[in-house]
Structure formats: structure tokens, C-alpha cells
Amino acid sequence: QMQLVESGGGLVQTGGSLRLSCAASGRTFSIHAMGWFRQAPGKEREFVAFISRTGGTTYYADSVKGRFTISRDNAKSTVDLQMNSLKPEDTAVYYCAAGIGFGTTTAAYHYWGPGTQVTVSS
Fold first, then answer.
1. DSSP-derived secondary structure for 44-71
2. Is the CA virtual torsion 62, 68, 69, 72 positive or negative?
3. pLDDT tens digits for the chain (122 residues)?
4. Smallest Cα–Cα separation from 94: which of 82, 110, 77?
5. Rounded distance between C-alpha atoms, residue 49 and residue 61, angstroms
6. How far is CA 98 from the centre of its chain?
7. In angstroms, how far apart are the furthest CA atoms of the chain?
8. Which residues contact 28 (CB under 8 A, 6 or more apart)?
9. Cα distance between residue 35 and residue 52, in whole Å
């Protein structure tokens, strides 16, 4: 059993940066692959970024590639999302999730945090 909690969301201007963090409880963090998803009002939850169990593999949605960086610290049981050059279309609730193996769909992840709001003003 895992519990995930996101933090670091807030209001920023276009072109600004935010760093989101996801903290996991329990001792099983290091065996899980991790992902970040986001959901804007009226839209489906969409994949943002993936990182493998050891951190050796990352994968990003085309919409954030080159702007966002996912990282993890297994000793601290945390996964971060550094977001640079933010755009209004990045506005959404951001969720971290834990799963097994690579996945870009919500079905691939079995544990979810409650989400944190990111708002980018134009």
C-alpha cells in the first residue's frame, strides 16, 4: 500500500517556473515506476512524464518535452517535476502516480495522489 501527496503548486506568470514534489509513504517506493499526469477543466486526464524504477529512463509528452524534467530520489521516496517556460495551457491539476513498468495511460498506474493546482496566467 502506498500513499502519495503532491506539493509545490501555485500561481505563476507565463514563462515562469514551478517545481512540484510528490512524497510517498511506506517502503515500496523504489520498486515502482512513477508518472505525472494533469487534468484541465473540462478535459480528460493526460499523461505528462514518466520515470522508471531506478530513474534510468524518462519519457515526456510532446507538449512538455524540453520544458519539464522529471526526477526521483529513492532514498527520500520522492519524485519531482521541474516545470520551466510555463504556458497558460499548462494550467491544470497535477497528479503523481505509481505503477509497474512503462505507461502513458491512467490504467497503468495503481496509486494516485490527490493533486495540486497549477495556474499559469497569460
1. --EEEEEE-TTS--EEE-TTTTTTEEEE
2. negative
3. 899 999 999 999 999 999 999 999 978 899 999 999 999 999 999 999 999 999 999 999 999 999 999 999 999 999 999 999 999 999 999 999 999 999 999 999 999 999 999 999 99
4. 82
5. 6
6. 10
7. 41
8. 2
9. 9
